[in-house]
Specification:
Pfam families: M60-like_N, Peptidase_M60. This is Peptidase M60 domain-containing protein. It comes from Pedobacter frigoris. InterPro entries: M60-like_N (IPR035423), Pep_M60_3 (IPR042279), Peptidase_M60_dom (IPR031161), TCAF (IPR051244). The protein is of the alpha+beta class. It folds into 2 domains: about 240 residues, Jelly Rolls, CATH 2.60.120.1250; about 130 residues, Peptidase M60, enhancin-like domain 3 (Neutral Protease, domain 2, Orthogonal Bundle), CATH 1.10.390.30. The strands form 4 sheets. It has a 6-stranded mixed beta sheet. It is elongated. It starts with 8 loop residues before the first helix and ends in a 15-residue tail after the last helix.
Length: about 450
């Protein structure tokens, strides 16, 4: 999905890119050619074994289907280890239960090269594995299946180097500084919180080492929790429990074509604005927005990919800064009646006659009219229905009828005012629901 696709020197860039939104959501052929990494001294072999006991989890694809999401969640875990090209990694694997074993990933999605650069994968076998790395990069473990029931123990014995690896609630500030100073043979670092993993270059981590890493990781984890709650994912039931893949990847990238973006398994942030994921005060609309993309559901049709993502951003803004409202401060509400006054032939919700921000106001009006539980109920309904929505008309049809069912109102007049011109029988289907008209003109509501 391209941005219309989930900013002063650096601040000016932030403003510009915030207003234009992230530059990619379009599904396009994978570009796996970006594998080049910065030149760094070759890591020395680590002698102390590093052990991981892993439990198989439900696959990201299965969770995508359960939650009816547009994108796959981060389905791998960090090791805090790094390897260089041609190094031989030795890892002993013990099957503790079940029959399946983990896969190693070398490299981080989008980290180097082009926006969709991929890690190299290696399937593990029981016993000693001697793997000659074909790439430089961080080592990750993926252990998933549609019917998970296995456990395994991995013991890395040689061929790798430890990286600066901050773990919230465990690593102290002095330990972090010492790691950044002494573990200087690797280019990247990881900061891990309850719900997030941040990958950035070591130089950036040093630049922001005086920031509060606990506050940073707590804030990003809180953003994800807010967006989960907004989605109605605040229960232990199969329907409403959060994604089993709890930690979302926020990685630095270097593709100058893009600023910040979200895609399968990650969100990514250009290195020149990396404070957005390293400085607590700068963790604002950009990360709110990109993490919002990973909460969007399958009914998101093409024209609104960069619109509905901001219902999640606004949910975070309401909690973090309740006295701030981007639609008010940017005077977006003043543009709404101008758009709604256009002739029917010009008023088309799915083109650029109205900006993504003006179109966001339609979704905000539904929340204003029907309360804070409107969207949690709507997103939950989608998980229950599991609709078949193969094209934009079907997605619009599903959203419009579901909004009527959740609100208990016939919203045809409201949708027609906003120019939702659907090439289907949706308005007849809404009428067949026999719902009453809203008691007020919802299109006049604003903050």
């Amino acid at each position: 999905m391209k941005s219309s696709p989930l900013f002063y020197a650096v601040a000016a860039l932030f403003v510009v890119c915030t207003f234009t939104q992230c530059k990619k959501k379009e599904v396009r052929p994978a570009d796996n050619s970006g594998t080049e990494t910065p030149v760094v001294p070759p890591p020395a072999v680590a002698e102390t074994p590093v052990i991981f006991e892993q439990t198989e989890l439900l696959s990201a694809e299965s969770e995508k289907k359960r939650l009816q999401l547009s994108w796959l969640a981060t389905d791998f875990s960090a090791t805090g280890l790094y390897v260089t090209t041609s190094a031989i990694i030795k890892v002993n694997v013990e099957q503790q239960s079940g029959t399946r074993l983990p896969t190693l990933l070398i490299g981080t999605y989008s980290r180097y090269g082009t926006w969709n650069s991929q890690p190299v994968t290696f399937n593990l076998k029981a016993g000693l594995n001697e793997i000659t790395s074909t790439a430089d990069g961080l080592i990750w473990i993926r252990y998933t299946n549609d019917n998970p029931n296995a456990k395994a123990k991995l013991t890395f014995t040689s061929g790798f180097k430890k990286i600066p690896y901050y773990i919230a609630g465990t690593t102290t500030k002095n330990q972090w500084k010492e790691m950044l100073s002494k573990l200087n043979g690797v280019p990247d670092v990881i900061l891990q919180g309850e719900r997030c993993m941040i990958v950035v270059d070591r130089a950036s981590a040093i630049k922001y080492q005086e920031e509060d890493q606990e506050a940073l990781l707590s804030k990003i984890s809180r953003i994800i929790k807010i967006e989960d709650d907004f989605s109605g994912l605040n229960s232990v039931t199969d329907l409403d429990k959060p994604n089993v893949h709890q930690r979302y990847l926020l990685t630095q990238h270097e593709d100058k074509t893009y600023y910040m973006f979200a895609y399968n398994y990650r969100t990514a942030y250009i290195g020149t604005s990396i404070s957005a994921i390293l400085k607590p005060a700068d963790v604002t609309w950009g990360p709110w927005h990109e993490l919002g993309h990973l909460h969007q559901q399958l009914w998101t049709w093409g024209a609104i990919g960069e619109v509905t993502v901001n219902i999640f951003s606004r949910a975070v803004q309401r909690e973090f800064t309740p006295n701030e409202n981007r639609l008010v401060s940017d005077k977006t509400w003043e543009q709404v009646p101008v758009y709604l006054a256009l002739p029917d032939a010009q008023r088309n919700f799915n083109n650029d006659v109205a900006s993504v921000w003006v179109r966001l106001c339609m979704f905000e009006q539904l929340g204003l009219a029907f309360g804070s539980d409107f969207y949690p109920k709507l997103l939950r309904k989608t998980r229950v229905d599991k609709p078949v929505v193969g094209n934009d008309d079907q997605k619009m049809n599903y959203f419009m009828k579901s909004a009527c069912v959740v609100s208990g109102k016939d919203l045809s007049t409201f949708f027609k005012k906003w120019g939702l011109n659907v090439n289907s029988t949706v308005y007849a289907e809404i009428a067949a629901l026999g719902l009453p008209q809203p008691a007020q003109d919802i299109s006049l509501l604003k903050d």
